Please model this.
Amino acid sequence: MSARAVRKISESELRRQRECAARVREINGGRAAPALAYVETYGCQQNEADSEKLRGMLLDMGYRLTTDGGDADVIVVNTCAIRDHAEKRALGKIGALKRVKTARPECILAVCGCMPQRGAVSETLRRSYGYVDLVFGVHALWRFPELLESALRRSGRVFAVDVDGDGAAIAEGIPSSRAGGVKAWLPIMYGCDNFCAYCVVPYVRGRERSREPGAVLSEARELAASGYRDITLLGQNVNSYGSGGGIGFPELLRRVNGIEGEFIIRFMTSHPKDAGDGLFCAMAECEKAARHIHLPFQAGGDRVLRAMNRGYTGSGYLALVDAARRRMPDIVITSDVIVGFPGERREDFDRTLELVKTARFDALFTFIYSPREGTPAASMDDPVPGPEKQAWFGELLAVQNAISAEKHAAHVGGTMRVLVDGRDNGGGGDGRPVFTARTNGGRLVRVTGGGIGGGDIGRFIDVKITGSTAWSLTGEKKELQ
Ligand code: 5AD
Ligand code: SF4
Model:
């Protein structure tokens, strides 16, 4: 890829936002009761990271965060556009909020994220959701203080959508509010240049742009110093980090690994066409790098992979899996797959099944193809009926669930080191508290046992694995000998 200059939001523009934030803080300071804000997030980790920024800016504007929209003065719905189902869920939520807005017209209802980046959706919000006060896309996230101030001053509905993605830029220094204090998302790049035929991401999140290594490293240092134990480097395709010039992802990983502190480094997502031994060597070398890679394969058959514009073959993908396991025999490999891409036939789907049986993923995220307007796949012939795709999907799930269950069961009786990250609100049914934890490879472990308590959250402990399902492990905290 040729080097492309990344537009950075200037310090003076950022200062203007801080001034807007200060004015909103003043408005809120004059209220009898503290102003409350609620952010609801749909979609991927990038959206979670964006919501952390929204919360950071809301705190900066004098709001207190609540976990329920019912009593909030500002409600933000951060939306996802990846599949039709995600859009329907968010629209359902926005529809349900009409009641809140009717009961308390003074509350501000904002819709942001990926959906407003789609021209047709922002038009729908404009025409059919007249009670939504503020609509802004991902490229306008950093302007939230200014947009919220306009909405509060009631100068009409506020729309800030840039559907052609021209405004895609990098804004540094936006405050983030991360819940829990154990796990942190750390975006290293934004957007995507791959244009897989089915995917809306390059259209809504814009062209790929990497943050400067210095900015990533200083944020990683702050996170480590504040006690975060599990840091995930985020990007749609982290393996093309720095492709506009500068250091690549393996080197970035080494530098984050060099930061002092006891923490795990995760990253996602890796695109197979840009992953290779350079990455696996760096992972194997870095003691803080999780022994986990999320490597979406999307389809097993070469005909479908070509139509998807993925840039690799089924056998090329399996060779990568082998290479990763050669460097790190204990590596956890997870993946994404799409069933029912336009024109996929039974024999193509059989290649997907074969690949899953050969690769033996630890976990697989399975999706039925969902047409996205404006993508090349949306105008491809799609003769396979929905129920048939559903049947293939069921078949694939059964194959993968058996593999996951088998892989998990192999850990029963063993001891694993885990990072405790929270309480499991579902409880164990027998009154004993249950905590959630992750292994280095990212497997979920539900931990019980006399010795475990709230003080363990944020700590690495040894757990004896006592049970397993296809989705998680259960274990007991090992007492010190
Ligand atoms: N339909 C179904 N699944 C999709 N994904 C992306 N776009 C679509 C679509 N149009 C899946 C891919 C990707 C994951 C995040 O979502 O598997 O890796
Ligand atoms: Fe979408 Fe492909 Fe980019 Fe992933 S790599 S975000 S699937 S276009």
Observations:
- The CA atoms of residues 35 and 478 lie 45 Å apart.
- The radius of gyration is 23 Å.
- The pocket of 5'-deoxyadenosine (ligand 1) is lined by residues 82-83, 198-199, 296, 298, 336, 338, 367, 369-370, 372 (CB under 6 Å).
